[in-house]
Design goal:
TRAP_DctP_sf (chains A, B); metal ion binding (chains A, B); alpha/beta; D-Maltodextrin-Binding Protein, domain 2; homodimer; DctP_fam (chains A, B); metal-binding (chains A, B); six-stranded mixed beta sheet; signal (chains A, B); disordered N terminus
Chain lengths: ~350, ~350
């Protein structure tokens, strides 16, 4: 060690209740790489409080530099969609994404990001940390040599931006909409022409009329894309993603190679980013929502009840088919919805009452 | 170092992408003490996921034993109510409590635990992490040589247990109720005989009829006290504490003596316990609520709207008086409610819609 370090350590000890002797030991150090589904500067996902870069920084700080993680946004090292396989094979140690991008590997992956008409932030955390969700996620990913962690959350997402008002289920027929994944499959049941478009291409496609509608995240990130400039109807009822969990995956052998202190550091950093990223979304969505409605001429409203009903029926049908086909999906589905049934009764007496009778004068 | 450790470290390196050389340095080690407002075995507060003991364990694990914290429940080292002064003077390094126990030091401390008709869990976290709340808390505590951290949350608490049904505001007059702090002052405005009773004394007092009603926390912890056995009316509308934040206070000089990695470890452990403790409450309250209503004959209902209105009016009056008297309380109050105003508009389009239209079929 350098003399400067030794002096500093001794001084810190003197000032700081040094009852234990200084610890001197050789400690393994790791230089790892984290790839991501999202671009290198994507707000929330890659930059800002609770993001992938912040997660790397927290781990490096807590480990005193013993676990350094070099972050690569989508396309910097590998393409966005290759993160799962890259970590599975050990090409990179870590990847940041959302599990629902990997439903092609196992449909059950959907449940660890968000399920339409499923759990919100507080509900998901209860299931994940205490209701068996974390263990099931590990079980689903185990055969791919991956260890998954919840490491962020957007909270409630918005339905999205439409160039024309949606008054009935029929108004959805033929609408060309950017909407990925399971939600896209649900809309297709209602006649929507659902399309997969990368975030950077949403604005130009909506502006040129190639698409009529687009879902992205929530007020803050949607405004960054400029979607309000080319579509005025903002449907707010985020039926499809009530709380969208970010995932960190770690190659299983690499994870097992970490000593216990670094494992604990990674686990706690993920939990910290879970709450800190969601808080950031609440703060920034509240401000962006106010700006969009007050200053940008946006018409914000929930989807009509009949449309929500039709979306729910289509969701139920698709999930039932998936459960029928695949035993591990059935196992995860049953755990998730058994948890939700109890959570719903409790939320009726807690958060529902807060939102309907307490936070505003009745 | 022992040979065994060296071999282990080398093996770990070989298996775990050791690109960096092993780090060898002398590191300051700390043996600290944490006292608590709560008993040594109190569920949620002292034991279980996200509790004070779990917080100590996480810090010790992440630091590889360099920051060891010996936990003392209330009465084991000092009485419950002396934690603030003990940390302020440096007698102990850390204390676990809720800030609203210290409103005698500064009324502003109330806002960092819970404010009647105030922010819920997601709202509070947005204000705390990103809306200036954390910085204001540090400002309020600075003159007491304390550095505060949010390190846990109960989520929505319940109004409490009543031996007789409450149908009108008049029914509250003369009711002898265990209810501490600001909520007690609010009830007094409505004629309640509000009393401060330690948790362990609530059940015998309610059983013997010394009191007619009692507030504690939520279904899981209330059931542990056995309150449902001696009062059947469970009022669920937790108007007084929509999300009750646990605080960790650290003596300022001791905090400043920590090296950057241990500071980061403490901060991230607190954030992790914040989300993990709240998730634990959601899970366990949901199960306990179901049991109380289905198996224990409890009549669970929200307070009548007129009672809620009267409680709101009394709260507004008391907060206005506090703001008038004290500049730092005014500053905190204005920051908190300015944040809440924006959060309310956003929550109307996000969580409110989730609870009213999405999680159950409409």
């Amino acid at each position: 060690m350098r003399r400067r370090d030794f002096t500093k350590a001794a001084l810190l000890g003197a000032a700081g209740s040094l009852a234990a002797p200084a610890v001197v030991k050789a400690q393994a150090a790791f230089n790892w790489r984290m790839t991501s589904f999202y671009g290198p500067n994507a707000a929330f996902y890659s930059t800002g409080p609770g993001s992938a870069k912040d997660l790397c920084k927290r781990i490096e700080e807590m480990s005193g530099g013993r676990l350094k993680i070099q972050f690569y946004g989508a396309g910097e090292l590998i393409p966005a969609a290759e993160g799962f396989d890259a970590v599975s094979s050990g090409t990179v140690e870590m990847n940041y994404a959302n599990s629902y991008f990997w439903t092609g590997k196992s449909f059950a992956a959907q449940y660890f990001t968000a399920v339409p008409f499923g759990l919100n932030y507080q509900g998901f955390n209860g299931w994940y940390y205490d209701g068996g969700g974390r263990e099931l996620w590990r079980e689903v990913y185990d055969k791919f040599n991956l260890v998954p962690f919840a490491c962020g959350n957007t909270g409630v997402q918005m339905t999205g931006w439409f160039r024309k008002e949606i008054k009935t289920v029929d108004d959805l027929k033929g609408v060309k909409m950017r909407i990925p994944g399971l939600a896209g499959r649900v809309y297709k049941e209602l006649g929507v022409d659902a399309r997969l478009i990368a975030p950077g291409e949403i604005f130009p496609n909506l502006e040129r009329g190639v698409i009529d509608a687009a879902e992205f995240v929530g007020p803050y990130l949607d405004r960054q894309l400029g979607l309000h400039k080319v579509a005025k109807y903002y449907y707010t009822t985020g039926w499809h993603e009530m709380a969208t969990t970010s995932e960190l995956t770690i190659n299983k052998a690499k994870w097992e190679s970490l000593p216990p202190d670094l494992k604990a550091i990674v686990e706690n950093a993920c939990a910290a980013c879970n709450v800190i990223s969601e808080a950031w979304c609440q703060k920034n969505n509240a401000e962006a929502y106010e700006d969009l409605v007050k200053n940008q001429g946006v018409i914000a409203q929930p989807l009509p009840d009949d449309v929500v009903k039709a979306l729910r029926a289509a969701t139920t049908k698709i999930l039932a088919e998936a459960v029928e086909k695949d035993p591990i999906t059935k196992k995860v589905h049953e755990s998730y919805f058994a948890y939700k049934a109890k959570y719903d009764d409790w939320a009726d007496k807690s958060e529902l009452v807060y939102h309907t009778k307490i936070r505003r004068a009745i």
